[in-house]
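Section handout, structural biology tutorial.
Before the tutorial, make sure you can parse a SMILES string by hand: atoms, branches in parentheses, ring closures as digits. In the record below the ligand is NAP, and the chain has 328 residues. In the tutorial you will relate the predicted structure tokens back to the input. Do not try to memorize them.
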Amino acid sequence: MARHPAGELDDADFQVVEAPRPAPADGQVLIRHLYLSLDPFIRPMMDPVRSYVPHLNPGDLMPGFGVGQVVQSRNPALPEGTHVSGRFGWQEYIVADPAALRVIDPSLAPITTAVGILGMPGATAHYGLLELGKPKPGETVVVSAATGAVGSVVGQIAKLRGCRVIGIAGGPAKCDHAVQELGFDACLDYRAAGIEERFSALTPGYVDVLFENVGGPLMDMVLRRLNAHARVVLCGAISQYDGPTSGIGVPAFEFVRQRATMTGFIISEHMAHWPGAFEELARWIREGKIRYRESIADGLRNAPAAFKGLLTGKNFGKQLVRVARENG
Ligand SMILES: NC(=O)c1ccc[n+]([C@@H]2O[C@H](COP(=O)([O-])OP(=O)(O)OC[C@H]3O[C@@H](n4cnc5c(N)ncnc54)[C@H](OP(=O)(O)O)[C@@H]3O)[C@@H](O)[C@H]2O)c1
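Predicted structure of the complex:
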């Protein structure tokens, strides 16, 4: 990161730095980065504000989850060729201690899933919906950024739990995908006119669970239609990350009236949930009950543009960057 962004990301917020390839010490491994995950939470980390993690400063390496392959090993537990995932950052080579890595078995699922549906976003969807949203059969679940890495999994799990699922997404292609491919009952295209009326028509029995990824006026629209004892799961507010902020113009007493709860969470504080979530999600993928989709940008130099695209809805599914080709 070259500087703190002022609002929307600019190319000058980033700089490419060339440095010698690092060498692993005894017990460590050298990893060649194959796929970098771009995740929205990195954008708020670029602002100098108090948060659940220290913010970035100019000159810091852009952080990010990644998948790679061990190319030099000084630890017999991780031989060369092993696929691993971890917090790699926006760089081509990483030196790491094995304790900081997750070993990936490429015969079980494509390696990219280790930073998508079988990685942090999948764990987020599984934990947030099931542990905080607590959906019951027949209830109405609304999820925003519905075709994205987290939202697509949330909606599909809610369907497996017997819920009626309404997605909110930008544009007809994403909405068609939500209904036809992901099996949602309906999808609200928020880029088209008359959102409030169309949303009211889609929720005659109101909303029992809101899984919120976007924030702003769209979130307020759903909050005004909560059912009694509704659960609002605050996962993210991507529409607000570039600032300025808006939304939450809903009177506090509305939550009292509906006896609703609203809970924010950060998935890295719930690591105990991850292995069980991955096991269940992997089984659902094998059984053809859950689908996922990816957008892959080519080359680390295109990471800033792809990251900007993620924050403006240009991605369609989990956004990745191919840093290097395997065996390439
Ligand atoms: N709490 C946690 O631990 C945790 C963990 C992971 C992710 N998250 C949050 O979960 C959310 C989704 O993350 P993800 O990785 O799954 O990303 P994603 O949904 O794959 O991609 C982001 C999507 O957000 C939507 N979006 C972007 N800007 C928007 C805007 N101004 N207004 C409305 N929608 C906008 C776009 O979809 P449309 O084109 O459909 O608008 C875009 O495709 C983010 O808010 C993220 O911060 C939280």
